[in-house]
Amino acid sequence: MAGGSLSFLDEALASASARLTGWRRDLHRFPEAGWTEFRTAALAIARLREWGFTIRMGKAACVPEKRMGVPSPFALAAARERALAEGADPELVARMGEGYTGFWADLDCGPGPSLAFRFDMDCNEVAESGAAEHRPRREGFGSLHPGLMHACGHDGHVAVGLGLAAVLAAIRPHLRGRLRLVFQPAEEGARGALPMTEAGAVDGVDALFGFHIGFRAGESGTLICGTEGFLATTKRDVTFAGAAAHAGAAPEEGRDALLAACAATLNLHAIARSGKGATRIAVGRLEGGEARNVVPASARLAMETRGETTALDAYMVAESERILRAAADMWGCSCAWTTVGSSGGGSSSPELARTVAEVAAEMGGWNALIERDAFGATEDFACLMRRVQDAGGLATYMQVGTERAAGHHSDRFDFDEACLGRALELLARLACRLAGRDG
Q: Is the pLDDT of residue 397 over 90?
């Protein structure tokens, strides 16, 4: 252990840390996108049960009507079959039904505080690099699922969650209160936290911890103890409907939905920026039409807004709706949209960030301790965080530094796995600080 005497932790940390790389690489080989994390969740639940945790899963852990961006029944069925073929427990997969893959696990240690730690499970819809120099390919743990890849480090997050569960179970006699591990689906796209929050995932929690490897902490040995400035976001799929016609003989009879979508795309990017804070707009996908000689009767775009605050995102949403309607009207079309992801803004509790900094300093071995720093992106952990803070509790989101082969969401993303042991020890020490029987 790096420093700061907690002798009862030594053996537990050593045992769990030795397994982190293996867990991470297994998860990396079998990535699963949002709401399809059947294998990931099933393997985690099976282990946590063995270690004495009580599990809440399925619809009991995720309010159905709050879910967004859920894959088609066909895609969910295919993902279930794939998970079973790759070793997932059939009983557990059946209980997850139509993509209810989120769960939380409680370790009851008697009277005391309630702590929660959140770990996101989903991968990115990115095809992993096949280059010979890409380490996962070179060392045999590259993705086996075409078009899917852990390109953001969530495989490492789940591995740390498993490690923390093993450590907490081993040191249970030294702990008090309730320790909860929240394993969340569908963080990518800001879809998974809200339905779990509404199901009570963090109700009654006194202190909540989340973390990300890398991101703003781009060097090994750097720790950002609290994150500020989560961007609020709204993600939508928009459809334009027009009328088909012969593009040569009777174009005047058509209503060009693709041109309406193109006009919307250009003008969405012309929304006036607010002087009250940062805002973002993006159209990530645009498609439409049926054939080269037919006036396009349909078009689709995938877009998102972001704002430095929830109010600023609401401003961008309202302006985008105005432009979508106007573009459709200009081309004689109609448009409609579905919200497929959303998250508000938020910031870590300063006093809990200070506690993280104190514990990290006692632990030792960090090159740089940054008490608080900006995030500049969206993370739906903000939803869980606000729930705890609004109820009078504390929450913080840490960033654990690591060297990366490429940026997050790149097809060449990889990270120095030494950060996993650092993250695990920090979380275990935080549990001991706030829920240890010896204070």
A: yes
